[in-house]
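Long-time lurker, first post. I've been practising inverse folding by hand and with some scripts of my own, and I keep getting stuck on stretches where the structure tokens seem ambiguous. Below is the full token string for one chain I'm working on. Before anyone asks, I'm not after the true native sequence, just a reasonable design that respects the backbone. If someone could post their per-position residues I'd love to compare against what I wrote down in my notebook.
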């Protein structure tokens, strides 16, 4: 059997490596994935996928002249998001692989600046 030989790589911190010739893939967050001894999976073992979004949301208040806080009308909110990819697999050792897609949490205030 020949060794896993990536023909395509996607991702930055966590990467998915594909060996398209052998129809196999693996996921690693190591700079050199061989150091990790990762699980090499066949394409046929993937049974589904999804995206899980974690949201932290809190209300933004305005300051009154007396120094107290009050809600805006309507209320305003700020949020931060973390995106996680979930790959469901047919394996005797585990049924899903979940990993974070974005390196840093996405701040709704920062993304609003680009609209």
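-- Answer (accepted) --
I ran through it position by position. Result:
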């Amino acid at each position: 059997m020949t060794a896993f030989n990536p023909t395509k790589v996607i991702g930055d911190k966590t990467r998915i490596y594909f060996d398209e010739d052998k129809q196999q893939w693996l996921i690693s967050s190591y700079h050199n994935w061989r150091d990790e001894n990762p699980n090499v999976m066949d394409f046929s073992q993937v049974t589904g996928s999804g995206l899980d979004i974690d949201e932290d949301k809190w209300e933004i208040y305005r300051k009154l002249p007396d120094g107290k806080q009050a809600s805006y009308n309507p209320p305003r909110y700020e949020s931060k998001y973390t995106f996680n990819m979930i790959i469901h697999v047919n394996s005797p050792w585990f049924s899903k692989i979940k990993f974070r897609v974005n390196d840093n949490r996405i701040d709704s205030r920062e993304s609003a600046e680009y609209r």
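A couple of notes from the structure itself: The CA atoms of residues 56 and 90 lie 32 Å apart. The first strand starts at residue 8 and ends at 11. Happy to go over any region you disagree with.
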